[in-house]
Amino acid sequence: MTEGRCGWAGSDPLMRTYHDEEWGVPERDGRALWEKLMLDGFQAGLAWITVLRKRDAFRAGFAGFDPEVVARFGEAEIARLLGDPGIIRSRAKIEATIGGARAYLAMREAGEDFADYCWGFVDGRPLQGDGHSVPATTPLSERISRDLKKRGFKFVGPTIVYAWMQATGLVNDHTHDCFRRDEVAGLA
Asked: How far apart are CA 59 and CA 32, in angstroms?
């Protein structure tokens, strides 16, 4: 492929496929938005490729990221996950995912749709980055982070939230020379 691509995609085929087919595509499904937020939390302190390589194992371990199932996880499930070499075995991150499922369900029980909540921060339309600079955080990611924390989510600092915003298409940060920039913008 001779087209330009965001530099972070590198040469790893899995990263390139993720970049070319998934990253930045506007995600409108609340459950999928939640799953991606939880996976970005597992990335904290690690490279995204680590999570990407383990994503299928995460999905198996966390019951397909079904919030209703994950919210009921207790000590036996935590122990099972801590023994699973296919995932990132961090008790704090596992417990944060269980708590995140409970927070997600609490929002739903209060009549708040997670997708509407997420997209409400950008008035329902993806923000378009300038194509040159890609910040680690923004005032908006800081605001979303604070709000998520108030709702009981963990591992949702402003950097994690901004990476999640990019991944889920709340913001299009494909670089100006990337073949996906205009394609993703057209999905807005």
From this structure: 11
Task: Judge whether 70 and 101 are in contact, CB under 8 Å.
Answer: yes
Q: What's the CA angle centered on 45, arms 136 and 17, to 5 degrees?
A: 70
Domains of the chain as residue ranges with CATH: 26-186 (1.10.340.30)
* Span 74-110, pLDDT tens digits: 999 999 999 999 999 999 999 999 999 999 999 999 9
Mean predicted confidence (pLDDT) in 164-187: 97
Q: Inform me whether the pLDDT recorded for 151 exceeds 70.
A: yes
The encoded tokens of residue 27 equal: 């995600």
Q: What is the pLDDT of residue 3?
A: 73
Q: Torsions phi, psi of 2, nearest 5?
A: -95, -5
- Is residue 71 within 8 A of residue 98, CB to CB? The reply is yes
State residue 188's pLDDT score: 82
Count the residues in the chain: 188
As a whole number of Å, the end-to-end CA separation of the chain is 25
Model confidence at 1: pLDDT above 60: no
Alpha carbon distance 7, 176 (integer Å) = 11
The CA distance from 52 to 47, in Å, is: 9
Residues 6+ apart with CB under 8 A from 161: 37, 40, 137, 141, 142, 144, 145, 148
Q: With a cut of 70, say whether residue 2 has pLDDT above it.
A: no
